[in-house]
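Why this split exists: single-chain examples teach little about how molecules sit against one another. For that reason, every record in the complexes split bundles all components of an assembly together and asks for one structure covering all of them. Below is a record exactly as it appears in the raw files.
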Amino acid sequence: MNPGIDVSQIQRFGALYIAAARLKAMSKFKTIIAAVDIGNPLFYLIAVGIGIGVLVEKGSGTSGTNGIKYIAFIAPALLANSAIAAVMDECVFPTIEGFKWRKLFFAQNATPITGSQIALGVYLSALCRAIFSVSVYYTLLIAFDVVNFGQSILLIPVAVLGGGAFGAIILFAAAKIEKDDQFFSILGRLVIMPMFLFSGTFFPLSSMPIFLQPIGWVSPLWHATELGRESAFDYGLSNLMIVVHLIFLISLVVVGLVLSTRQFDKRLAK
Amino acid sequence: MSKPLISVRGLTKKFGDFTAVDGIDFDVAKGESFGLLGPNGAGKSTTMRILAATSTRTSGTVEILDKDPEKFGPLVRAHLGVVPQQDNLDNELTVTENLYIYGRYFGLSKKYIKGKIEELLEFAQLEEKRDIKVEALSGGMKRRLTIARGLVSEPDILLLDEPTTGLDPQARHILWDRLFRLKEQGVTLVLTTHFMDEAEQLCDRLVVMDKGAIMAEGSPASLIKDYSSKEVLEVRFGSDRNKEVAPQLSQMCERMETLPDRVLMYTEDGEALLEQIMVAKLHPTTSLVRRSSLEDVFLRLTGRTLIE
């Protein structure tokens, strides 16, 4: 072992090496990532700001949205949703590729790097992507005068936390999937889509019938959206609810990562 | 004799009810080139994954550089270079990026890796492809890059699982040449193969595996000597007649195998035996006298051919 391999150093920083490699791979798609991360918010801001928002405000003013402009009301949700989309892209595809398509994880695991470190590395790089997406989105919100720069900057960490909570769970699911045939379409149509529609995104959760509200309660998007609204506007969330939202999201991160790291270790050791 | 680098005793691996590896024992000494020869499904790759300190075992003991790979995975893997059966390079990255990133997984310094990359590119004959995406490389080039990648940490042991499977003959010969150089440099090689010519070219010593068990162990030459005759006469009479003439042929040699397409006759003097067949007026449609190979050893040990 001539080049001086320090295993204890790898045990400390291995996850960062994996994250660095993932970011390098992502950088190969920088044009596409930039196009998606700029284009997607633009479409929403134009469609909702000019179209739906005008219609809503014509009908009921801002009485249904705690006195907040409609586009501003949904902005924290759009932001959290963009974090969720980014984290999902960077957790699901690399994980299925790593275990199944190209088996990159097996190559990484042939070095002193462990399965847990690979899981954490993938997760960290997904968070980096989410920070990028959300920051771009936030800049556009400022540019479109949807929110004012200032305390609303808290929208960024809150959205990333929402994405991270969802990502930790989805990372586990992606590592668990052995046959990926229908996974994406089921995930997209039966999980992501309802979560996007029923998490208090376009209207307050309380305006839905009570039997539909639990979708919001278990959805990281709702918790992140509520926290986001509180950070950006005078939304009137109680301290208790702020704590509940934070605990829920942080718990998902912790539980998701414990499950994911175990699953990565287990599947690589087969 | 110095302590072996790898020591395996009673190694067993079960997947549910299926026993993939069934109580095998072997040692690999420093600088040795050791092979696991057997057909697909013999348990070679499973054994390799256990040696690579990535897979767990059901029972038995394994020591690599005096350590149990199951307990000290990262520590053991720091000393290994692994070339898996299926190239698992990062297709989106270039040749040098693949080597660089892999070096970082061993925590190696940027400066060291940069220097090492030049050496590895030369070894893998990929200097001109250094900035090409891996996607665009041929199968042989990808294989050489995977081997180069496994060498980035200057491992004490290089594990190669089916190194030339799927390559064309020319690419195989280039690869054998590269591996032979490593062997000359004193790198300890452990490889699996189902090609008997590969085993004969590269292995100092090998075990013949079938259905998870070791059937025989020795150098290629000693295995041939112990389990086969000096020469083999291959005769064909056409698919229907092979069986017909078999009883008559079996009188003429010590041992004989009737395969669907040909009859193998084991003898010390192939030409003399062919003469005898001609005298008996059996007239084979084709005939070939050759030296015994590991394929014959395998056939003798298991009653089956290596590639089925």
